[in-house]
Design brief:
The complex is a heterodimer of chains A (358) and B (293). With 358 residues, chain A is mainly α. Chain A has 17 helices and two strands. Chain A has a two-stranded antiparallel ribbon. In chain A, helix 5 packs parallel to helix 10. In chain A, 49% of the residues are buried. Chain B is an all-alpha fold. Chain B has one domain. Chain B has a two-stranded antiparallel sheet. In chain B, helix 2 packs across helix 8 and helix 9 packs across helix 10. Classes of the chains: A mainly alpha (358), B mainly alpha (293). At the A-B interface, helix 2, helix 8, helix 12, helix 14 and helix 16 of A face helix 3, helix 4, helix 9 and helix 11 of B. Chain B: Its main location: membrane. Chain B: Keywords: Amino-acid transport, Cell membrane, Membrane, Transmembrane, Transmembrane helix, Transport. Chain B: It is a multi-pass membrane protein. Chain B: This is Branched-chain amino acid ABC transporter permease.
Amino acid sequence: MSARSEPGLRAPQSRTEVAMSSAVDTPAEESARPTPPSGLLTVARAPGWVRYALLAAGLVVALWLPNGLYPAVAVDILCWALFAVSVDLLLGFTGLMSFGHAAFWGTSAYVTGLVAIHAGLPFPAAVLVGALAAALLALPIGYLAVKRTGIYFAMVTLAFAQMVYYVANEWRSVTQGENGLQGVPRTFFGVDLSDDYYFYYTILPIVLLGLLAAWRIVHSPFGRVLVGIRDNPARARALGYPVHRYKLTAFVLSGFLAGLGGGLFAVGHRFVSLDVLHWTTSGKAVIVVVLGGIGTLWGGVLGAALVVRLEDWLSFSGFEAIGLVTGGIFVLVVLLFRRGIWGTIAHLALRRGAARRR
Amino acid sequence: MSGFLQNTFNGLVSGAFYALLALGLAVIFGMLRVVNFAHGAFYMLGAFGAYVLLAEAGVPFWAALVIMPLALGLLGMVLERAVIHRLTRLDPLYNFLLTFGLTLILQDLVKSRYGTQSSPYHTPDELSGSVDFGLFDFPTYRVFILAFTVLLCVAVWWVLGRTRVGMVVRAATERPELTRAFGIDVGKWVTPVFGFGIALAGLAGVLAAPMRAVNPLMGADLIIVVFAVVVIGGLGSIFGSVAAGFGIGLIQAWGEAYLSDFPIVSQTVVFVVMAVVLLWRPAGLFGREEAPA
């Protein structure tokens, strides 16, 4: 055998290989990424009745939620669920970690708030305008960001999101700066939605529609190409897929979904503050996804529910240093629990299934 | 003319902070493939440490300038051994997330003890006043920062370029497998290099204490700008990171001076430059092309 290595064989590097080669002192016993396509595969492999039972259980919980929690917290959970799913669409299914998704969540929150205040439209229309604005913003940011991958992509998106934050902070005539947009109305065809309990049920169909859209994207031929790009970009390009354009499309779709969540969040709180654009918001969205399980889609929903509930409980009990807890969770999850909740369950179920077949 | 020089000088001084932070990030990234989000938090700890040392123990600036980098460098080495080390084999994104979590923790620890108010730190007496350069005078303290930073960067450059340690670090940065194949124990340099990068951040923090508002949030906003700086310079290139740091400092200062009607310009110009660089040379001005996307 000649020692000459084929350039064509060397070039394609999976994420795992990239991670391995960047290792510093190696015994390479542990594989890098905890089973990349976990969610996708296990859900696809689970028997039909399991999937329908999970769907039914999820819907029942969603319908029950504001009866068991404060309705305002339930509303937050819905918005953050959309946000998390939008981040997972990129992180889990395209292999791009956006650390600047607050830009889209927050831009939509501001646009939605402004439209709702000044145009007097019913709030779903305002949210739609907000989400479209977020998607529009995602176009140039995504166009520039997809030129880099991996850790650089995270830094670039983080930096652009910070730019949006500075602009919103300076553009006081529109955003009211530090004071924030006050009094975002919940206009809805003359129906009184001031009670969060009823507001929850009004936005539930919108959120479910958004989640359904994410599910459709992941399970469409387009979504399969995205996963192909995530696992082996060079091969995807060799097969003739315009990799950058696919990534950009995913980025814009993700920005739209994040915007949908952010717009609903603005209407839900009747108030928009600069916090919605802050880098900690971007980071929190990624925490939520990692906690739920990267690449599991519904894991993000679980993560959102847990984190929002926990933060509400902490602030209710007068605990000031929330960052201590969220940061601590982050460190622990990244160190010990990288599969996340959904990913771990799926992994265990898969192992049991495999053991039974043997 | 003297106004222009004044602005240029101020730009170089704020660029010095970017350069110090970018240098630490680049050295750490080169050796560990870790982008340390907590770099800003260590910068903040450096400044806060200097403040606390002076306020509660009467330790002067000069002592803090030695103590804080050493203490933080040690803390960095402990953190590297305790947690970061466990993730270096994985995708670098995991360590980015880990250090993000550490940032939140460190920031809130300081916040819960000292609140979010900014604390003043007096310029040491030897460095108060100003230096007369004929056409204009500059505050002595700023002249000191600039000279100190330039000296430090030159020293680091000399160590990397002219000593055996530097050769190992550079080799390990550029071709880790090959370096190992030559029988060089790369692993034993990882922890000290991480500690050194953190010490640089702590040093920048101490230097910033008399000049900037000392508060728990001072590091986080800065580090995001530094991320943009290293994207512009090319994170793989140590020289590029430092050069981009000074360059961005200059551009910001000029923007602030000549476009003062639009304060947004000086805040966002770094991101605009980043966008242009991404269009024109995606790998950064001094960076090499990364593995195919």
